[in-house]
Amino acid sequence: MPAYDDLMSFQRTTEALSAVAGRTGWDQETIMPRGAAPQRAEEMAALEEVLHARRTDPRLGDWLEEAHAPDAVADANLRELRRSYDRNRKVPARLAAEIARVTSLAQGQWATARANDDATAFLPVLAEVLRLRREEGAALADGGDPYDALMQDYEPGGSSDAMAAMFDAMCPRLIALRERALASEPAPRLSGHFPKDAQLALAADVAGAFGYDFQRGRIDMAVHPFSSGSGLDVRITTRVDEGDPFNCLYSTIHEVGHACYEQGVAPEHLLTPIGRGVSMGVHESQSRSYENQMGRSEAYCGWLYGRMRDAFGEIGVASERDFYRAVNAVRSGYIRTEADELHYNLHVMVRFDLERAMIRGDLPVTEIESAWNDRFQSDFGIAVDRPSNGFLQDVHWSVGLMGYFPTYSLGNLFAGCLMQAARVDLTDLDTSLANGDPSPATGWMRERLQRFGALRTPFETVEHATGAAPSEGPFLDYLEGKFGDLYP
Questions:
Q1: pLDDT at 1 over 90
Q2: CA 349/CA 154 separation, integer angstroms
Q3: Which residue in 255, 262, 291, 341 is the catalytic one?
Q4: pLDDT tens digit string along 299-348?
Q5: Domains and CATH numbers, the chain
Q6: Could you write out the three-class secondary structure of the chain?
Q7: pLDDT for position 223
Q8: To the nearest whole percent, how much of the chain has pLDDT over 70?
Q9: Quick check: is 291 catalytic?
Q10: What pLDDT is stored for residue 224 in this prediction?
Q11: How would residue 87 be classed by pLDDT, with cut points 50, 70 and 90?
Q12: Mean pLDDT of 117-127
């Protein structure tokens, strides 16, 4: 045990420093003064140099060779440390620091370009981010697919071929459901004015009901909503459109799903390699099940309709059923984060194909806007009217998250499996949801999945929680049941 104890003591400091770096990133996207961006980029690069040195310290290799796992927890910690050590040794320290510096600058430049609808202003920094991530992908791939190598940061064990097969399996049923919905009577729309403060107050109430612990978290505003942190400090962000309260409300519930996963990890795992979510696909299973399968369910919408009227007065729909239809309206639209459940994965497919082509060198950065617009017109039947509704809408490429997008759809697949199993156990769930109380389902998630952190691999995590190997069937069955009822 001495080698294991020394290893874990060393790693605890690395985990703490990594948390500090994450909080610095949160600050940059929320309250940092814009003029601080150049200095912040240098600070992020310095932090990454320190972290990279620790993650590649030769002593880690010695400890990993000598260490033995007396139990499943130690075995999982060693698994995660070996993967991290092997991976980080392939990336030069210079490159790791430069990626941190450039992506820190790029995030601010993206936000400005998006606000100004100025695609040209963003292309040079995107080209630099892409150059660095290609270099990193090549270093990690050892002659293999650089996109697959980058994907391991977000979905260990995943591959682009497996993701493409998942999309191929899902696409026919998704498109059939979409065409049926679009050919039906349109859903009603909300109308009225929805003041910012009232939206944020309702969002905070809902976040608490879904299990978000404000003693260990906070809600702030950001251009692109996100969740950050783990353990005792897990923060989320949202955004507000005073003409569309669903943007704030459901973005908040989505990020609460992420945050509850991190807050739900058992205390004994904190500041250890398994003391966080195991993958972004599993993370998305939490946010998508919270947002959609609980938050957009007919039972919960019945309760929310009353709360919305209390908060805003008349909202333009006259019944709980019409409100439910409005919440789940199927419409072709530009924005992924606002997309209905049938269109959402089609948005992800666009990004998956384009970023894979960019990393593989098949799509120059100078052609990304036209390639996006052409693909969007083909898949959605509408022309992109401005860059902020097109390739500038997401923050991901500016901060170098190439290989992240397909995990959103994998999360939908996992969510279908998890909620199918939860409903078998929780036979009276809809009664609780109709009272505005999702705690039976969120408690089930915490007990069956969240508390274990990264104890198991991603697919093992879902299989352990549900008792069955993950597949796309439960998710597609859920969609057909729900939207078959909404669009008969």
A1: no
A2: 17
A3: 255
A4: 999 999 999 999 999 999 999 999 999 999 999 999 998 999 999 999 99
A5: 2-151 (no CATH), 160-486 (1.10.1370.30)
A6: CHHHHHHHHHHHHHHHHHHHHHHHHHHHHHCCCHHHHHHHHHHHHHHHHHHHHHHCCHHHHHHHHHCCCCCHHHHHHHHHHHHHHHHHHCCCHHHHHHHHHHHHHHHHHHHHHHHHCCHHHHHHHHHHHHHHHHHHHHHHHCCCCHHHHHHCCCCCCCCHHHHHHHHHHHHHHHHHHHHHHHCCCCCCCCCCCCCHHHHHHHHHHHHHHCCCCHHHCCEEECCCCCEEEECCEEEEEECCECCEHHHHHHHHHHHHHHHHHHHHCCHHHCCCCCCCCCCHHHHHHHHHHHHHHHCCCHHHHHHHHHHHHHHHCCCCCCCHHHHHHHHCCCCCCCCHHHCCCCCHHHHHHHHHHHHHHHHCCCCCHHHHHHHHHHHHHHHHCCCCCCHHHCCCCCCCCCCCCCCCCHHHHHHHHHHHHHHHHHHHHCCCHHHHHHCCCCHHHHHHHHHHCHHHCCCCCHHHHHHHHHCCCCCCHHHHHHHHHHHHHHCC
A7: 87
A8: 100
A9: no
A10: 86
A11: very high
A12: 97
Residues with Cβ < 8 Å from 482, sequence gap 6 or more? Answer: 328, 341
Task: Report d(CA 330, CA 322) in Å as an integer.
Answer: 13
pLDDT tens, residue by residue, 20-48: 999 999 999 999 999 999 999 999 999 99
Average pLDDT over residues 224-239: 96
